[in-house]
Design brief:
Blueprint (H helix, E strand, L loop, with lengths): L19 H9 L10 H5 L13 E2 L2 H6 L6 H9 L8 E3 L4 H14 L2 E5 L18 E5 L6 E5 L4 E5 L4 H9 L3 E2 L12 H7 L6 H4 L2 H4 E8 L2 E5 L12 H4 L8 E8 L1 E2 L3 E9 L2 H13 L4 E7 L1 H9 L4 H13 L7 E9 L1 H17 L3 E2 L3 H9 L6 H7 L2 E11 L3 H14 L9 E9 L3 E11 L4 H21 L18 H20 L29
Parallel strand pairs: 2-4, 3-4
Antiparallel strand pairs: 1-2, 5-6, 6-10, 7-11, 8-9, 8-10, 12-14, 12-15, 13-14, 13-17, 16-18, 17-18
Helix pairs in contact: 4-18, 11-14, 17-18
């Protein structure tokens, strides 16, 4: 069964290697395992629902608890401590577009707010009800998960928006195709959620981000239905698909989506290359991506992330042999690991691999073959389970990301790490930060930082530590010329910083669009546009500036 207060299937563990406790204690100090609230105890705090009975809506306390929060660090603190400020008053499970329309009409009749819910994997506060006088209805779209249409000639497929990643891929692969969209949340996140948050998959270098894969669909809003035909291209005014992409439930509920699919690749392989330093490695990555070589993945770790990855990998004998090999080749303590994914026709991969590895060698790179790449691809959806294990040992782990142009990557990366490293100094707490370039483009790259810190005995203090870290990093991103979100979306956590990126006119345009589709402000208020406060979240920049 899926965990109610953590990540993933509760039968799947993530054991740490024997050296991990000492590694964590050396960098952060000893962790104290928290005393988590039980499911029964938290269910007992769920108040009576405020919605009239409806055949599509469950008012069961257990359902309402399981839909109360997502997967952000504040969500974990709330659920694990049992201090959940608000619950949905009901959870609806529509099966058809007509059901969704009926729920929109019901919400208007009873004065309820609606929260669209896909897989519940949001890490920035997309799906959290807020305390208030109006009842809240969460609309879980997981029953709307069918393959509604498939066109092998045009290479397009239409799904219900609630289809999860594994279900979507299974349907396509049975027909010899793939979408190729693999975010780390792939096992639980949904197609509708990917569209609503402008998601990026781990192999988007080859397959494209969701905005290039989303061809059209249907959005049901309080003001009516928006049908988006899946044209390959159009000059008929602004592309309204771009308005739906990243709308985060503010405009309405996406009920179905047509996506552009690709025939399954003939061959796929992943290689690891180690560089003596980050500057040379980043130059190699930039040259490769600007050369437009047909790869599906380039993922570059900084020296600290490389060190952390190797230290916690286990397989001490293999790691020892690798360290010896690299040392002989002049790759030492500042080494960086680059993962390269080659996907496509076997002959094309062979030629591409030779060219890419030649670029790497020219900048000091040493190929380590396929072993590390194979291990990464095999375990890439297991990594989030590490959050459960670390929490139980008294440590919190969170991530944040941004994107910027190549000329700014080294400077912004350093500013983010510096901001995080000093954010808890006044509390006498240390932070372990490690970073990688998760997605690369000819013009720039995404910077993805992971940071670990100790849990406090008091959950409010843990939340304060997170708030200090998140605020410091967000300020550094905005001041340093990065986007506030490359792939996690805006939600509530990033909404206070959006003005610095969009400007007053841009925010006004988004607010006007929201009013057009949702005149009474029922759809997911406070998400994307911070119009109902952001209690417990990072402070709002004054005047849109930091």
């Amino acid at each position: 069964m899926r965990r109610w207060n953590g990540w993933g299937d509760d039968t799947i563990p993530y054991p740490l290697p024997a050296n991990a406790p000492a590694f964590l204690e050396e960098r952060l100090g000893p962790g104290a395992p928290p005393r988590d609230a039980t499911f029964a105890a938290v269910v007992a705090t769920v108040p009576p629902g405020r919605l009239p009975a409806h055949p599509l809506i469950s008012a069961e306390p257990a359902d309402r608890l399981r839909h109360a929060r997502g997967q952000s660090l504040p969500d974990w603190v709330a659920l694990r401590s049992g201090q959940v400020a608000a619950f949905p008053d009901g959870v609806a499970y529509p099966l058809t577009e007509s059901d969704v329309a009926a729920l929109l009409a019901f919400a208007a009749e009873v004065g309820a707010r609606l929260i669209p819910y896909g897989g519940g994997t949001s890490v920035v506060g997309h799906i959290n009800p807020q305390p208030g006088d109006a009842p809240v209805l969460t609309v879980n779209l997981r029953r709307m998960n069918g393959l509604l249409g498939f066109d092998s000639i045009s290479q397009q497929a239409t799904f219900g928006a609630g289809v999860a990643g594994p279900e979507l891929e299974a349907q396509l692969r049975a027909r010899g195709f793939t979408l190729g969209h693999f975010p780390q949340s792939f096992e639980y996140s949904t197609l509708g959620g990917w569209v609503a948050t402008r998601s990026s998959g781990q192999q988007s270098l080859g397959y494209g981000r969701i905005e290039s894969l989303f061809a059209g669909g249907t959005l049901l809003s309080p003001a009516g239905a928006l049908r988006l035909p899946p044209f390959p291209a159009s000059a008929a005014g602004p592309d309204l698909r771009q308005l739906v992409l990243g709308s985060e439930g503010r405009l309405g509920i996406l009920t179905e989506a047509t996506v552009r699919v690709t025939p399954l690749p003939e061959h796929e392989e992943f290689h690891a290359v180690f560089f003596p330093d980050f500057a040379g490695a980043a130059t190699a990555v930039r040259q490769i991506v600007q050369g437009r070589w047909p790869l599906s993945l380039l993922r570059l770790s900084t020296p600290r992330e490389t060190q952390t990855t190797l230290a916690l990998a286990g397989h001490e004998r293999v790691i020892g042999l690798l360290e010896t090999l690299l040392s002989v080749r002049g790759v030492g303590g500042e080494k960086c690991m680059l993962l390269c994914g080659f996907t496509g026709r076997a002959a094309t991969i062979r030629d591409t691999r030779e060219q890419v590895l030649d670029i790497c060698r020219g900048l000091g790179g040493v190929s380590a073959g396929r072993r590390f790449g194979a291990q990464w691809i095999e375990g890439r959806f297991r990594t989030p389970y590490l959050r459960n294990t670390l929490w139980e040992r008294g440590y919190a782990v969170d991530t944040l990301e941004t994107a910027t142009t190549w000329d700014n990557v080294p400077r912004l990366l350093g500013q983010i790490e510096d901001a995080l490293s000093g954010a808890l100094d006044d509390r006498g707490e240390r932070v372990h930060i490690f970073t990688h370039l998760s997605h690369v483009y000819p013009q720039g790259a995404s910077i993805y930082a992971t940071y670990l810190f100790r849990l406090a005995a008091d959950p409010d203090e843990t939340l304060d530590r997170w708030r200090a870290l998140k605020s410091a990093a967000s300020r550094a991103i905005v001041a340093g010329g990065g986007t506030i979100s490359h792939q996690h979306g805006v939600g509530r956590d990033h909404a206070p910083y959006l003005a610095a990126e969009k400007g007053a006119l841009g925010l006004g345009a988004l607010a006007a669009a929201a009013r057009c589709f949702d005149p009474d402000g029922r759809m997911n208020p406070g998400v994307l546009l911070a119009d109902d406060g952001a209690a417990g979240r990072p402070e709002r920049p004054v005047g849109g500036k930091l």
